[in-house]
Amino acid sequence: MELVTDVAREQTRARYPDEDGYVERDGIKVFWERYGEGEPTILLQPTWEIVHSRSWKMQIPFLARHARVITFDPRGNGKSDRPPAYEDYVREEFAKDARAVLDAAGVDRAIVVGWCDMGESLILAASHPERVAGLVLIAPPTSPHEVETTDYPFDEVLDTDEGWAKENKHYWLRDWEGYLEQFFGACFTEPHSTKPIEDCVGWGLETDAETILTGFRGWETKEITPETTRELAARVQCPVLVIQGSEDGLMDPQRALDLAEELGASVVVFEGSGHAPHVRDPVKVNLLIRDFVESLERSAR
Amino acid sequence: MSVTTEAAREQSRARYPDDEGWVERDGVRVFYEVYGDAPTTLLLFPTGPISHSRLWKAQIPYLSRYFRVVVFDPRGNGRSDRPGTAAAYSRWEFVEDGRAVLEAAGTDTALLGGLCHGGGSALMLAATYPACALGVFAIAPFVPMLAPSHENYLHYPFDEQLDTDEGWAKCNSHYWRRDYRGFLEFFFSQQLPEPHSTKQLEDCIEWGLAGDVDANVLSAMEASRPWASEKDARALCRRVRCPVLVAHGDLDGCQPRQEAAVVAELTGGTLVTLQGAGHLPQARHPVKVNGLMKEFADSVVPPQPKVRRWTRALSRRRRALFICSPIGLGHAQRDVAIARELRQLVPDLEIDWLAQHPVTKVLEGEGERVHPMSAELANESGHMESESAEHDLHCFQAWRRMDEILLANFMVFHDVAREENYDLWIGDEAWELDYYLHENPEEKRAAYAWLTDFVGWLPMPDGGEREAFLTADYNAEMIEHIARFPRVRDRAIYVGNPDDVVSESFGPELPLIRDWTEQHFDFAGYVSGFDPAAFADREKLRHELGYRPDEQVCIVTVGGSGVGGHLLRRVVDSFPEAKQLVPDLRMIVVAGPRIDPAAFPEQDGLEVRAYVHNLYRHLAACDLAVVQGGLTTSMELTANRRPFLYFPLRHHFEQNFHVRHRLGRYGAGRAMDFETATPAVIAQAIAEEIGRDVDYAPVETDGAAKAAARIAELL
């Protein structure tokens, strides 16, 4: 199957931001948007820089009718800067960006929602409990236990580029789009997912292999370590909801269940869903987020 | 309309307390009950002495599956004392009773709930002892002076002699002492403005009569003056720190909307208005109220984190939930036959059963999967037995007196249906399902097929006007349900043919049952659990079952419930005489799963068995059967062309009218009257009928397939 993805004009949105802007830290600018007014506030975290904030397009219009919704583009994609140093892409920096965006939008405290969150939301919730009222983690790969690493060496030149051999520095530089198709094909294991795959590949093409490689030396270093995960999880005080697809093609679902246990979180397993249920099963995810937000509102009285 | 309520034996509960006791304060003893052992306690306050703790009967079975529910009888009613001083009925005494009950139940914090006077008590406790209250769920709370009293109370003074006792003049201490029942009938009819509330009204009157009139007068005098001014009332509400939910019916005739709204405002709580509801929504709209209470409690005390599952639509297996009425085993046989046909049509279909004993016994024998939540169902057969007398079951009244059990069982279904994704629900005379789905149509989340073998409640002649009124009222509600929400039943299948439907009307100014049924049902023909062709070779069958060609086999069976014990006894008593008349007689008495066979000593030619699997094979092989008037067994005999004697249970309208009508159409069976059937009469009838050739109209054999075909269209 050949995918045709023009980096074309953005498709019409269901809702446009009521405010947007940039925050700047150490000369690096990050672009954020606000939808809706008042309290509570929901911060939709970017995942790593392979996509940008449009990955929440199925959540924003609905949630913004119930809450103030904040999104931002990760450094390395969208309208945010592409800083040049590896250290600019560590998870602590993403957590600091989130905090700076909340400050800029005038938000004291938010429910933080992360997709494939590599540690930034845990860092934020553990280090700044006063800013985080609750945490929703969709398909979080950060396990408190050691997990297996990939089959192919990332830095070496390989004699194949079949399947996950595409997850390789040299292949990325050769055919970034080919990797995106591999990656998001595995992300959406559900049949009939053509549009979500096209969307994600399109967002991935708004950055490039060079930018990604600046901040990527393999998954072991991209995500926070199991030890850090355990240490942060112990410090997270707020209620946590974990949403995990049983047919996740990018990670073992058990990682999310282990993390949930470590956090004392509620879990909803999406039977038959892949790595991005908020994109592929948006109605159910939207309602779960709303219910979670409402339960926090009630118990906060 | 006159209401008759005997201060009778309490009807079966859906759940009985796990613990009970008395607390004593200043010499006054107050009775309490504890249900369940969940970590969070929910204390439900009584109203004043106008009622007792049965007020919460629709909530207890459901909520005690999630919370430890504590209820108590107010001083002045139920099993609590009736002190004789006004001071003993101060509002604060009820509050302190609640606190003492909590302490006796071994906790000092709880969710609090209350209705009217009790809603006020809950708020007063929460305001005075904030550490006790996790949250307050108040239905139409009575907080004196917070708002002007309901206009109903403004017409007449309570404690003065009046020259009238019309209408709200009945709310008067002198009238109460003259005719307390008259007051209760009037008052509660005002508080239940919803049509078709006869059972709730009867309950309230019964509970009111269980109380003490003097206590009620004293309490009514004290109820309005726990403090001096509106300012005090407002201050009290402001002192409530915990979450509050106020529910209020917009047709409430006791507490005004403004009062509920001010409580919600001052406590920072939420006001839920129940449109079209009166003062007693916990009784009249229990599914909604239970849901609100559970949701509120969960928001205040979040349940332990757990792993839930949601399956995306196209990943779901095709699943049906079969809800099978447990009253009589007949439904089980035919439902298994329908399930078998359904699987032929939809091979990947998984069927779960929500069912209880004795149906589960049949299902397990057939290898069917009984849903584990079935264990939570309250027992309906046991209730029916408890309502029966000697060969006598007033099944309409027994069914009405099962309202608590039916609701509790609907709530079990509700939880299963919410938790799991079924494509289809099939209810075979699952009254709780059909009734509460029409009362709460927003709960319908799957296709739904309804099966029944009779339509229309019919009054027994000796029930008089009252019973005729009641059956018509129930029929009218059903007709309105179907007319208003035709989307609830996706299929309605009558197990039989149009001619099997009785010709009576549903009641005054209501349609004829047959016309209406033909308009609203598909007709599957009769559904039996077997194919009579399989028994064409009776001699072979008799050989297999151990019946010799030279003996005359008479099977005596009363179905799966325990109601038939007296008939069995009577027939056993007829055996010696029958044996004289029919020397080759071999009588097999099937006691069924709920009657102890040891009660009937065996004698030569008479055998007693506890349970016979595939009883229908024996009925196909016999020379005569003696049965009750239940449909399934008599139709099995009809289909197998066996002679039989049948004894409709006294006061059982279905057996006396519906089944008898149908058997008449087939020319099948000999109806016997238990009243006049002495052992000698029975022996004579056995002798006349045994081995007789019959000319019954034939019974179709494709009913299960036809029913399944209509249901399969929904999958």
Task: Explain the layout of strands and helices.
The complex is a heterodimer of chains A (about 300) and B (about 725).
Chain A: E1 19-25, E2 28-35, E3 41-44, H1 60-63, E4 68-72, H2 91-104, E5 110-115, H3 120-127, E6 132-138, H4 169-174, H5 176-187, H6 194-204, H7 209-214, H8 219-222, H9 226-235, E7 240-245, H10 253-263, E8 266-271, H11 277-280, H12 282-299
Parallel strand pairs in A: 3-4, 3-5, 5-6, 6-7, 7-8
Antiparallel strand pairs in A: 1-2, 2-4
Helix pairs in contact in A: 2-3, 3-9, 5-6
Chain B: E1 19-25, E2 28-35, E3 41-44, H1 60-63, E4 68-72, H2 91-104, E5 110-115, H3 117-128, E6 133-139, H4 173-178, H5 180-191, H6 198-209, H7 213-223, H8 230-238, E7 244-249, H9 257-267, E8 270-274, H10 281-284, H11 286-300, E9 307-311, E10 319-324, H12 330-345, E11 350-354, H13 359-365, E12 369-370, H14 380-387, H15 395-400, H16 403-419, E13 424-428, H17 431-439, E14 447-452, H18 464-484, E15 491-494, H19 513-520, E16 522-523, H20 538-545, E17 552-557, H21 565-581, E18 585-590, E19 606-609, H22 615-621, E20 624-628, H23 631-639, E21 644-647, H24 653-666, E22 670-671, H25 679-689, H26 703-712
Parallel strand pairs in B: 3-4, 3-5, 5-6, 6-7, 7-8, 10-11, 10-13, 11-12, 13-14, 14-15, 15-16, 17-18, 17-20, 18-19, 20-21, 21-22
Antiparallel strand pairs in B: 1-2, 2-4
Please, could you describe this protein's structure?
By secondary structure, chain A is an alpha/beta fold. Helix content of chain A is 36%, strand content 16%. An 8-stranded mixed β-sheet of chain A has the order 1-2-4-3-5-6-7-8, sandwiched between helices. In chain A, β3, α1 (60-63) and β4 (68-72) form a beta-alpha-beta unit. Chain A is globular, with a radius of gyration of 18 Å. Chain B has 715 residues and is α/β, with parallel strands linked by helices. Chain B is 39% helix and 15% strand. The chains are: A alpha/beta (301), B alpha/beta (715).
